[in-house]
């Protein structure tokens, strides 16, 4: 899934946004390990990464070729009225 942004993509976006909104910040300040801005850019990227992952999983659940588990059960029932045979999975 090449269209999904990676953690590093999200961190770069956070860093660029910080730079564009505060002219006193520099790339060196944001990239300095342990600085408040460094921590904030990593935190924003981590939150974004969780959201992107949840969204990708939700989207995968709406397609027959990528749905798994409960999402596949819901999809099969809603589209085709099929219920999984639980005996086959014991």
List keywords for this structure.
single chain; 90 residues; mainly alpha; 4 helices; 63% helix; rod-shaped
What secondary-structure arrangement, pairings included, does this model have?
Blueprint: H1 7-21, H2 27-31, H3 36-60, H4 69-80
Helix pairs in contact: 1-3
In words, what does this structure look like?
With 90 residues, this protein is mostly helical. Helices cover 63% and strands 0% of the residues. It has helices at residues 7-21, 27-31, 36-60, 69-80. Helix 1 crosses helix 3. The longest helix has 25 residues, at 36-60. The model has no long low-confidence stretch (mean pLDDT 92).
Number of strands: 0
Q: What kind of sheet is the major sheet?
A: none
Radius of gyration: 20 Å
Bin the strand percentage: under 5%
The number of helical runs is: 4
Based on Cα principal axes, name the global outline. Answer: rod-shaped
End-to-end span in angstroms?
32 Å
Oligomer: single chain
Given as residue ranges, the uncertain stretches (5+ residues, pLDDT < 50) are none
Order of helices and strands: HHHH
Percent helix: 55-70%
Q: Report the structural category.
A: mainly alpha
